[in-house]
Amino acid sequence: MSGPNRFLVIGGGPAGSTAAAVAAAGGARVTLVECEVVGGACQLRDCIPSKALVASANTLAAIRAGGHFGRTDPGPLRPDVSRLAERRLSVASLLSASLIGRLEALGVTLETGRACFAGPGTVALSSASGERTVEFDDALIATGSRPRVPAWAEVDGELVLTSRQAYGLAGSPEHVVIIGAGSTGVEFAHIFSSLGGRVTLLTAGERVLPGHDEEAAAALEEEFAERGVAVLRGARACSAHRRGIGVEVITEDGRVVGGSHVLLAVGLQPACEGLGLGAAGVAVEGEAIRVDACQRTSVPHIYAAGDVTGGVMLSSVAAAEGSVVGRLVLGEEAAPVDPQQAAQTVFTEPDIAWVGLQEAEAAAAGRRVRVARLAFSTNPQALIQPRPRGFVKILSDPRDDRVLGGTVVGRHAAELIGILALAVRAGLARSMVADTLMAYPSLAATVAAAAR
Description:
Blueprint: E1 6-10, H1 14-25, E2 29-34, H2 40-44, H3 47-64, H4 81-105, E3 109-119, E4 122-127, E5 130-135, E6 138-141, E7 145-147, E8 160-162, E9 175-179, H5 183-194, E10 198-202, H6 214-227, E11 230-232, E12 237-243, E13 246-251, E14 256-259, E15 261-264, E16 268-270, H7 277-280, E17 284-285, E18 288-289, E19 302-304, H8 315-329, E20 344-346, E21 352-356, H9 359-364, E22 370-375, H10 380-384, E23 391-396, E24 403-409, H11 413-426, H12 430-434, H13 444-451
Parallel strand pairs: 1-2, 1-6, 2-3, 6-19, 8-15, 9-10, 9-15, 10-11
Antiparallel strand pairs: 3-4, 4-5, 7-16, 12-13, 13-14, 17-18, 20-21, 21-24, 22-23, 23-24
Helix pairs in contact: 1-8, 3-4, 3-5
């Protein structure tokens, strides 16, 4: 092959944009095709917009609790829904513009349109300027995911909505019924209840955040109870539809829940439609594109990364997988991504973050672990805040003291979990964390103290 490698990236989210940047920086000739906004659904409709609303909700909640900081006349506090929407869109636009600037500076050619494989080395590109054929040496499919919509849900985008349709409701719905108590469901429950709305949260199991740390879930449920969020347990929905001027949800055991809106938070599914995978010979397994440990599909020079592969659907994992692909396209070596090392956070009140092995997983596997736990109520920086709640939990191997995982519940958990994520990634001993000299006073000091 003469000249630089022609690398085609389909999808401009974390996986696609990272792969494009890595490959372009190494000298590849990169074309990135995105049908909407560079940055992907993460920046446009998922992660960043929801966190912008969480930040607004937390600020409003802090103002309402101003008595802790000497405010004596709280008065009425009504959020301006239009300004919340403006701020959300502004943050997303700024991030997208910044990413576009970085990619263009690296020489990446950006195309707004849709790409469909016409063969194992060509795609048909449809854009505002017309249709044409683009040839490539290597390609990456990074088209992400879309909200899962069960057959029993009559989604209309007005009263019965997916998570990506819900942002316009912030501050306005009278009573939102949320189906699903995973990360997305509890975050929206936090947002709507913080902004003054009534929330009913349906979980098919016996608690929120099924599969995650039970003590962390209990802390969140305690907060929900104080806010008046109703959690219906064992409530597996089988129907969600409009009824009059409101909505109605029916569960498998016959319970009927009414409200003003329904929000579906029942997970995501890979977005593989319309890509012409058959023409390229790319194999699909179930709903997702099948890949090996280094993101190769059944066609060796075509890769897939991020949510479209059906693995752990996190932006950080997608970006890491994109980096692996970018390096492989350049002919470099790259170690496979281990999703177990990815830190995860639920942005609620309190925040909940975790990484690596969890207690329930260890118990299910019959694995012995040492568990160290310390509450934030012992921390002076936490005591300065209105409610010094939460804790740090660290799991280590009793044989060699290596940190295996951990959970942080409390303010700024997303930042603090990074300490434990690094320890898991580097295989550090618990004593290394314990002996690290953290700033004082700081919440991070509780991580070291818990290790001690």
